Amino acid sequence: MESAYLDHAATTPMLPEAIEAMTAQLGVVGNASSLHAAGRRARRVVEEARENIADALDARPSEVVFTSGGTEADNLAVKGLYWARRAKGATRILMSAAEHHAALDPAHWLGDHQDAKVELLEVDELGRVHPQTLRDAVERDPESVALVSVMWANNEVGTVQPVRVLAAIAHDHGIPFHTDAVQAVGQLPVAFAASGVDAMAVSGHKVGGPIGAGALLLARGVDPVPVLHGGGQERDVRSGTLDAPAIAGFAAAVRTAVDRQAETAARLTALRDDLIGRVREAVPDVILNGDPVNRLPGNAHFSFPGCEGDALLMLLDAKGVECSTGSACSAGVAQPSHVLLAMGADAVRARGSLRFSLGHTSTRDDVDRVAAVIGTVVERARRAGLS
């Protein structure tokens, strides 16, 4: 029997539409920057992809800057916007304490090496950044704020942030606002222009596209300093030969995922709620983390008292259930999730957590598999923890 794959937040299977679009270009030669016929063909593929992504995400084609994925997009936004604003004397970076490491780590690097003052915005016990928290931080000294960065939806606990309200607070003071929307696209309605954000990271392999393709959406007039220097292929802020086949697959995935978003969200919400109910039935003292209402449709994140997350992960894997602890690992030593710690959990609870994330291939059978084994797996993990 095949394993129940419940780690779609890490990567999700490619959609047939994306595979078809990408493989159609793999055997075709052409550098999109070349002026001859082969180059022009590759350029046409790239530009059609750019138009499709822009249309799907409520942006102008000129606002779509292709990158190698979400990490590069976040780095370009955080570092590039900081460098652009530092020239005007702004050195404070305001960022949610529950951000993905692709945004947090560049900010901390800027703090260590580039004179940035990183201020982590407090989140509540559900992982939310309250608008007043941002307003208070900004109004202490608006002129000193280089940028604000708050992700659209949390990759670990699934909490959805009030991005539009937060972006408006930043704009009241002329401060650029970046959001990592890697988890949100395809699961939630995501509209770049309507949200009011200035920069938005998107990743291909989280929406059914290929690994190694993504984009940073940049509003007109928002010009970060480049992180990569070279040919200036993407609006002079991102250099590098464009991967036309991957970009074609990425665009097909975004288009398909966005077109099916409402249908997918309804189906995944039903599966997720069933999963939550059945895990609670099997493990009565389990704790559901994140916002119980405003969360990603495919996210169910739990803390299991008396268990180590890594032990649970491996025991479930042996039973044919693939999920994630969501926590970082350094030199083989599990570290408590910074997201859960920011939400007020202690280190023991943070280390005893698992994330089940559903996606477009998830079925009722996957939920049944978890329900069938979770009780005995937790009991075994607790016994191991006592021995």
What does this structure look like?
- This protein is an alpha/beta fold and 387 residues long.
- The protein contains 13 helices and 14 strands.
- It has helices spanning 16-26, 37-56, 70-86, 101-113, 131-139, 163-171, 192-195, 244-259, 261-282, 309-318, 338-342, 347-351, 364-386, and strands spanning 4-5, 64-67, 92-96, 117-121, 145-149, 177-180, 199-203, 214-218, 287-289, 299-303, 321-322, 329-330, 333-334, 353-357.
- A seven-stranded mixed β-sheet has the order 2-8-7-6-5-3-4, sandwiched between helices.
- Strand 3, helix 4 (101-113) and strand 4 (117-121) form a beta-alpha-beta unit.
- The protein starts with a strand and ends with a helix.
Structural class by helix and strand composition: alpha/beta
Tell me the β content. Answer: 5-15%
Q: How much is the radius of gyration in Å? A: 21 Å
The averaged pLDDT comes out at 96
Tally of separate helices: 13
How many strand units? Answer: 14
Oligomer state of the chains in this structure: single chain
Task: Identify the strand order in the major beta sheet.
Answer: 2-8-7-6-5-3-4
| Main sheet properties | 7 strands, mixed
Task: State the shape.
Answer: globular
SSE pattern, N- to C-terminal: EHHEHEHEHEHEHEEHHEEHEEEHHEH
